[in-house]
Write a structure and sequence with these properties.
With 712 residues, the protein is mainly β. It folds into four domains: 3-163, Immunoglobulin-like (Sandwich), CATH 2.60.40; 169-248, Immunoglobulin-like; 256-611, 6 Propeller (Neuraminidase); 617-711, Immunoglobulins (Immunoglobulin-like, Sandwich). The protein is built from three helices and 62 strands. The termini are far apart. 49% of the residues are buried.
């Protein structure tokens, strides 16, 4: 066959690939388990799409062929051939003419014998998984074709997969509590090679015993169990196998702080806010006049430009449509007096920039207003100080983002400023500063609920605590004003919405108020810094503020000290969970306005769960926008078994309040191989509209999160 005819046939085959069965490819590959995989040739196209292989190319193991940097949501085809030298008499490599729609320089390296479509998602990644059965010697070749609409087609580099029979060996051992004979059941044991070219996972049984199957070689063997330290070491697996026992001590890893960038030329302080955006960047600003877009993954920043009017000490949130909204505050004429409350409301988005919205109804404005999101995305704005004399107000109003309108609603029983507040699973909003109250969105009325165990917390001054909603629907406050409540008062109290009562929980050995409080994906809570109010302490303080950092486990009611913050930061710091599982903090270094050393650094804390072995990774998420009750699907890499999927609302922090989505929902998963599905709740009080981190979890180890949006 002549070259022109062969090229034409090549184009026809590419189009026909859409209809041929995936089972044909799987059947051929199933007979050819690989022992080595190497790249062949180079790809083409402006995107630089790459075909990679991961996993153990040995009998009984799994190979995953990954496309990355591919055209999103476009047809891609994985072709497999028995030859890299000829195809039906035509020599290979074969140049693909640009006239057929291919990018310049595209070359076919593989005879097209069988093929299969590969699903490429919105993130430009796709995965094809091969489970390798018993060996039959041979060699085959793979290459991927991208057929996007509206741009050049392209070819990736090829992969040479060499086949050989292999004898596996067993890696065995027992997992116990360190220094004891007590077995640890359910411990995760992993055997890995560099770049995860080999990944084998197992669990210890009720006797603590485990067994993994592997080819001979040198690997890294790791063992983890929740609440115990991660342990790993090199292991040489011979033809007869290997044995390695583990003694797991308690978890003591302190995490690790590092500087990941800065906010210069701005140094954030008293009027600042931090908002996690839907693309993983952070929007920082003082008073809506000095905004900064900061990318925590790269440390890069940009400056969107000012809004044209000051709103210091405002509150805000990220609306379901992606806009940031900023409510109330003060106009900046006399920042320290708090007498110039404003009615201003504005929004910002990357697409449209700044937008002026209808003003608050309260004629004397609101600085330090409270804010809570309702099930349908409406915002409850409550209290705050007013002009011209900084008098707090008990009045409240509702904002409807769909119509950009404000309406009055019920008045609180107490006038408060910046009250921690959150939508509970019951549908009511809990407001905790002052005497706790519940707001019923159906009736628009407030009613008292149970009082704190430590009732005197310093009201009507600033709140001493922050508020979280736990995965089981209870509410948690962390922070205590010891001067008002007394030295014996607990730093943590828990609210039970079924009984309307509060109960004291345990405290760390250093009680303080106005800490940075950040729920984490594995269920613990980071409690960073805080004010000991000049109480006697052996720890360094700066005007009462400490660097002390703890992890609190609400389920076990246990505390553990972790790495102190690199610098003193008071409650004007803004601290946010990042999609990669770290926690970023900046601002708040002008301690109590005493002229202390300032810093514009953005510090990030890497929690201990980032040092516990192989993390799962989310690939090929089926969508990023969902309705309640929808089933979402994704692939996990490597082929690890997930224990749950966690949804966490993205944060919006200023002072001691979070205007984001106060949720951590633990969802059950269904998994077959690398394919994972889970179903979102249907209850709007459980899952209010907004943006969420989607974490794939293996015990307490999270993936990098995908950011998804839940619509009403």
């Amino acid at each position: 066959m002549g070259l022109c005819v062969r090229v034409a046939a090549f184009a026809i085959v590419v189009i026909a690939m859409r209809t041929l069965p995936l089972a044909l490819l799987a059947q051929l590959l199933a007979a050819l388990p690989a022992q080595s995989i190497s790249p062949l040739g180079t790809g083409c196209g402006a995107r630089g799409t790459v075909l990679d292989a991961y996993g153990a190319p040995v009998p009984g193991q799994t190979i995953e062929f990954h496309l990355r940097d591919a055209a999103p949501n476009a047809l891609h085809v994985l072709v497999l051939g028995s030859s890299s030298s000829s195809w039906s008499g035509t020599p290979l490599p074969l140049a693909a003419p640009a006239g057929l729609g291919f990018a310049p320089g595209c070359t076919l390296f593989v005879s097209i014998d069988v093929w299969a479509a590969v699903l490429v998602g919105a993130q430009g990644t796709g995965v094809f998984t091969l489970h390798v059965p018993p060996a039959i010697a041979g060699t085959f070749y793979l290459q991927a074709l991208g057929l996007p609409s509206g741009e050049h087609w392209y070819l990736t580099r090829a992969l040479d997969v060499t086949i050989a029979g292999a004898q596996t060996a067993a890696v065995t051992g027992t997992v116990r509590l360190a220094g004891t004979s007590t077995p640890v059941a359910g411990a995760r044991v992993t055997l890995v090679a560099p770049q995860l070219s080999t990944f084998v996972e197992g669990r210890s049984d009720a006797t603590g015993s485990y067994s993994l199957s592997s080819l001979p070689g040198t690997f890294r063997l790791g063992c983890a169990a929740r609440g115990r330290a991660y342990t790993e070491s090199d292991v040489v697996v011979s033809a007869t196998g290997a044995n390695r026992d583990f003694g797991l001590p308690p978890e003591t890893h302190p995490g690790q702080w590092s500087v990941i960038g800065n906010t210069l030329p701005e140094t954030l302080d008293a009027t600042d806010i931090g908002v996690m955006l839907s693309d993983g960047r952070i929007f920082y600003c003082h008073d809506t006049m000095d905004p900064i877009l900061f990318d925590p993954a790269t440390g890069q920043k940009s400056f969107p430009g000012p809004s044209g009017s000051e709103q210091g000490c405002m509150n805000g949130t990220l609306l379901e449509d992606g806009r940031l909204i900023f409510v109330g505050g003060q106009d900046g004429a006399s920042p320290g007096s708090f007498t110039n409350a404003t009615r201003r409301v504005k929004a910002w988005s990357p697409a449209t920039g700044w937008q002026q919205l209808p003003w608050l109804l309260n004629p004397t404005g609101r600085w330090y207003p409270g804010l809570a999101r309702l099930r349908d995305g409406r915002l409850l704005v409550m209290g705050g100080g007013t002009a011209p004399a900084a008098v707090r107000t008990p009045t409240c109003e509702l904002f409807d983002p769909a119509t950009s309108t404000w309406t009055w609603t019920g008045t609180m029983g107490q006038a408060v400023e910046f009250p921690p507040s959150a939508l509970l699973f019951t549908g009511n909003v809990l407001r905790t500063w002052g005497s706790p109250e519940l707001y019923n969105p159906t009736t628009g009325q407030w009613q008292p609920t149970g009082s704190f165990v430590a009732a005197n917390r310093g009201w009507p001054g600033h709140s001493d605590h922050s508020l979280c909603v736990l995965h089981d629907g209870r509410a948690l406050v962390i922070g205590i004003n010891r001067q008002s409540a007394g030295a014996q008062a607990a730093m943590v109290e828990v609210y039970d919405p079924t009984t309307g009562t509060w109960s004291s929980r345990s405290s760390p050995d250093q009680k303080r108020m106005q800490c940075e409080v950040v729920p984490l994906p594995h269920g613990m809570v980071l409690v960073q810094g805080g004010d000991v109010q000049n109480q006697a302490t052996a720890e360094p303080t700066l005007f009462g503020v400490v660097k002390r950092t703890d992890l609190y486990d609400p389920d076990a009611d246990l505390w553990r000290r972790v790495a102190d913050t690199p610098r003193f930061r008071e409650y004007h710091a803004v601290t946010l969970l990042l999609r990669d599982g770290r926690v970023a903090t900046t601002g708040g270094t002008n301690i109590k306005f005493q002229g202390t050393p300032l810093s514009a650094d953005v510090d990030a804390w890497s929690p201990p769960y980032l040092f516990r072995g192989v993390r799962p990774r989310i690939d090929n998420l089926s969508a990023t926008v969902f309705l309640r009750g929808a089933t979402l699907a994704f692939d996990v890499f490597p082929a690890t078994t997930l224990t749950s999927v966690v949804l966490m609302g993205t944060g919006v922090t200023t002072h001691w309040v979070d205007g984001g989505v106060p949720r951590r929902l633990v969802l059950p998963v269904q998994q077959s191989g690398i394919a994972v599905t889970c179903t979102l709740p249907t209850d709007p009080d459980l899952l209010p509209v907004g943006h969420y981190f989607l974490f794939a979890m293996v015990d307490d180890i999270p993936s990098v999160a995908a950011i998804v949006r839940v619509q009403g």
